[in-house]
C-alpha cells in the first residue's frame, strides 16, 4: 500500500464529497491560482485512498492542473454497500465515468495507480469520450505477480472468517520484504490503520479477486485512440518492471521509470513523478478552455 509522508492538505486543495449520478465520493480537489490547463482525476490502488496522492497535489496545481484524488466506493471515506457484486470491475469503471462527468471540466486526464490502473483501463475501454489521456502508474497488463496473487487469495480467505482488525494485524506480518525496516511516523501509522478499518470488507474482497484474476487487455486498450503513459518506479513487487516496459511498447505509450521509486512513485518521488506527469499532459493536449469556470 502507499504510505503518504504527510496528511495535511496543501493550501491549494479542499476536501469534500463529490456528488455524482452514482452517489457521493470523498475527494481532495487541488486548483491552480491561475488559468486551468487541464483537469486530472486520480484513482488510488488496492487498500489505498485519495491520501496517496497528497504529495502530488501542490506540484500539479502549480503547473496549472486541477487535480482531484478520489476514494472509490467503499474505500475509506466513500460509502459503499456490504455486497461483493457492488465492487465488480464494470461497476467501479462506471463510477469513474460518473466522477469525471461530475467535475464538469470536459474530458479529464485519467490516472490510475496499481489496482486503480486496471479500473481506469476498464473505464476507458467502456467509453473513452470522458478522458483526454490515460496514465497507468505501477499497474501492469494483467494479474499481479504470482506471490501477490497468493497474498490476495489469503486476504480473501481471511476476510470471510476474521474481523477487519484481526486481518490488519495478520497483514502486517505479510508486508513485502522492501517494507522491512521502514519507520512509519505514529500519525501515519494511525491513519493507515483507520483507513483499513474504514474500508468495506466486500470492497477488498472484490478488488482482490480482480488483481488476482485480471486478464491481459492490452491489445484492446492499444486500439483506443487516446494518449497513453506507463509510469512506474525502478522496482515493483506487484508487476515486474520489464513487464510494464513491454506493456508500454504494446500500447505505443510514453514510458517513464522514476529512479529511486518502487511501487508508489506518487509518495516515494513525488517531485519527479509530478514533473513526468505534467510533461506528458502538456504534450497530450492542454485542454484549452476546459475548467474555465472552476
From TrEMBL:
The alphabetical list of record keywords is: Hydrolase
Q: Which SUPFAM superfamilies match?
A: alpha/beta-Hydrolases (SSF53474)
Q: Matching InterPro entries, A to Z?
A: AB_hydrolase_1, AB_hydrolase_fold, AB_hydrolase_sf
A GO molecular function annotation here is: hydrolase activity
The AB hydrolase-1 domain, residue ranges: 40-276
Q: Which domain of life is it from?
A: Bacteria
Which PANTHER family does the annotation name? MONOACYLGLYCEROL LIPASE (PTHR43798), MONOACYLGLYCEROL LIPASE ABHD6 (PTHR43798:SF5)
Protein name, please? Alpha/beta hydrolase
UniProt organism field:
Streptomyces olivaceiscleroticus
